[in-house]
């Protein structure tokens, strides 16, 4: 419950146009200090949980083990973690490409789902809680790679989970 409360607080901050990305280049020490608020830590933890759910626990764990083995007693950056995950997925999923849409974009997407018979349509757009005129920018070009999981009437949530990667503005 505590973590969920932290996630909602981070999402509130991240839904403002004045938010910042989890990872970004910095030019000054002031910019470094601005980056180390709760947002990158809580959002980062949430993104890792999302990735673990999408890849499955075993695949995610194997990727972490490869990452720790490859970089023990050394320095690393976020690309190194995604590259380790890519080693485990054997090219079936570009984890780096997926995760960069989350860590390099500020904010998060609002996903709208509509059902028409057996067809499910999904659409994404950047979610903004409140527009701040002094900081307003149009981020219509933002497209996240959103891993969506779902179940159907032919299986239960605990026995079979289907996955769909929404990597465009909309999909069916």
UniProtKB/TrEMBL annotation:
<dbReference type="GO" id="GO:0042277">
    <property type="term" value="F:peptide binding"/>
</dbReference>
<dbReference type="GO" id="GO:0008270">
    <property type="term" value="F:zinc ion binding"/>
</dbReference>
<dbReference type="InterPro" id="IPR027268">
    <property type="entry name" value="Peptidase_M4/M1_CTD_sf"/>
</dbReference>
<feature type="domain" description="Peptidase M1 membrane alanine aminopeptidase">
    <location>
        <begin position="5"/>
        <end position="102"/>
    </location>
</feature>
<dbReference type="InterPro" id="IPR050344">
    <property type="entry name" value="Peptidase_M1_aminopeptidases"/>
</dbReference>
<dbReference type="GO" id="GO:0005886">
    <property type="term" value="C:plasma membrane"/>
</dbReference>
<dbReference type="Pfam" id="PF01433">
    <property type="entry name" value="Peptidase_M1"/>
</dbReference>
<dbReference type="GO" id="GO:0043171">
    <property type="term" value="P:peptide catabolic process"/>
</dbReference>
<dbReference type="GO" id="GO:0070006">
    <property type="term" value="F:metalloaminopeptidase activity"/>
</dbReference>
<keyword id="KW-0378">Hydrolase</keyword>
<dbReference type="InterPro" id="IPR014782">
    <property type="entry name" value="Peptidase_M1_dom"/>
</dbReference>
<dbReference type="GO" id="GO:0008217">
    <property type="term" value="P:regulation of blood pressure"/>
</dbReference>
<dbReference type="GO" id="GO:0006508">
    <property type="term" value="P:proteolysis"/>
</dbReference>
<protein>
    <submittedName>
        <fullName>LCAP aminopeptidase</fullName>
    </submittedName>
</protein>
<dbReference type="GO" id="GO:0005615">
    <property type="term" value="C:extracellular space"/>
</dbReference>
<keyword id="KW-0031">Aminopeptidase</keyword>
<keyword id="KW-0645">Protease</keyword>
<dbReference type="GO" id="GO:0005737">
    <property type="term" value="C:cytoplasm"/>
</dbReference>
């Amino acid at each position: 419950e505590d973590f969920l409360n932290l996630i909602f607080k981070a999402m509130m901050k991240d839904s403002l146009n004045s938010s910042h990305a989890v990872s970004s280049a910095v030019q000054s020490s002031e910019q470094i200090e601005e980056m180390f608020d709760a947002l990158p830590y809580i959002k980062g933890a949430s993104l890792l949980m999302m990735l673990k759910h999408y890849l499955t626990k075993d695949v995610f764990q194997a990727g972490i083990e490869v990452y720790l083995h490859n970089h023990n007693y050394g320095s690393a950056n976020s690309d190194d973690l995604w590259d380790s995950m890519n080693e485990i997925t054997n090219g079936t999923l570009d984890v780096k490409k997926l995760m960069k849409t989350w860590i390099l974009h500020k904010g998060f997407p609002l996903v709208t789902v509509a059902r028409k018979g057996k067809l499910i349509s999904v659409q994404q757009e950047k979610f903004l809680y409140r527009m701040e005129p002094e900081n307003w920018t149009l981020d219509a070009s933002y497209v996240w790679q959103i891993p969506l999981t779902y179940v159907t009437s032919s299986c239960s949530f605990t026995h079979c989970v289907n996955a769909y990667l929404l990597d465009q503005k909309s999909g069916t």
